[in-house]
Prior knowledge:
Blueprint: H1 3-22, H2 39-47, H3 54-66, H4 73-82, H5 85-102, H6 111-116, H7 132-140, H8 144-153, E1 160-161, H9 162-169, H10 173-185, E2 189-194, E3 197-202, H11 205-212, H12 222-236, H13 243-256, H14 258-262, H15 279-294, E4 306-312, E5 318-324, E6 330-334, H16 342-351, H17 354-378, H18 392-404, E7 412-416, H19 417-434
Helix pairs in contact: 1-12, 1-15, 2-4, 2-5, 3-5, 7-8, 9-10, 17-18
Amino acid sequence: MTVLGDEIASSALELSRSLWAEFGVGDAPQRHEWQALDLEPLILFTASFGSADGLLRSKSIEWCVANSRFLSGHRLHHFWRLADKSTRRAVEGYVATLESASRLTSVPESPEATRRRPRARVPPDLRRPSLIQLRLRAVFGLSVRAEILRLLLADPSRPRTASSLAASAGYGRGALVQALEMLSMAGIVTVERAGSLLVYRLSRPTALGQVLEVLPTAFPDWWAVFRVIEGILRYTRVSDRPPAGRVASAARLLHALRNELHRLPELSQPPRVTDAGAIEAFEDWAREFLAGHGAAGVSAGYAREVSYTVHRLLLGGWMATVREAGEQPRPLALSDAPELRPDRSARRRLKDDEVGAAADVIESVLLDMRTRDLRRSQGSLVPKESVSDSLIPEMSRDFATELLHPIQKGQSATFTEEFLQRWFANRRDRVTATG
């Protein structure tokens, strides 16, 4: 194996060990407590290593046998069928051993089989944020409904089509649509029409979050991540070839993985490989991709870059939009809108208070920024009402006076979340010191 191959394989194995540690397997550092894990893709990813880590292989099989009530045979076979031929061959022995030991099927086991099943020495701690999938299965059973709720919890404000959910749910589209209809009938999911499409979102995400308690702050698409890593590992087998051969291999890999890469955040995207000069950048990206997903805390690829754009409208007033990396901008606040302090809006119309109008929009921006900070540390369903700071109105007016005053009608200015965090922290320190 090449030097790059050794490096990538070692990083991939460490990632697998760290993810299994969240389930209580092994003693590797637990670096993914705040990332929602996905069990069946992890099993296939681990099995693809073959005998690279015999202890991890045997311990993970032992865990799956003892905890088979949390393991979906349907999803395991679904993702196995989607894997490429080399991966399927590599995992056949692992899956056969697992099925033989646990009698893993999609049929509910009998009470007698449940009594015979070996008990886990240390059962998984379902209260860990990373094990939200197992917690949902404990509540809703091994079902497509549990996977739908997990995917909708990832971003409760984002409406999803059935097709976008099917890619990660691990069930066929027919079963998924039927489950969405049942959840809609029960009032758990709201269905709306967006053009010619039906989109779905949680009806009461905060209530569901309270039932599930602590939620993770990131929901990576692990099946897509693992597919990309396996592709990178295949590439490393030819990385000692002349540059022309490496360019062709990298280009073929990126074409084969285009669907998986499309499902990952913009910060995880590789550079274009058009000539030998791009190979070094591609291989650096491969290293960073592995390092980012194996690092402690929320992977850099999933701490999405956020920016806010403030528009001064031609007909008067202000509007703010927010944009996450890989997404389209969405409206956040409009001055003089009824939901933005109607008492202030009425006074401004009399006094033509442009600074006050801009300040109200900035107040919404700062509240959104602070809410995102809180959700990263406490979970994705923390409501905006949890963010309170008596200094925000005053600082919003200062921001509008200093940074928005030069903007002419019809113009706009964009501020990154990082800039706003620094400005907010510095201004708060200054206000506190003078107070």
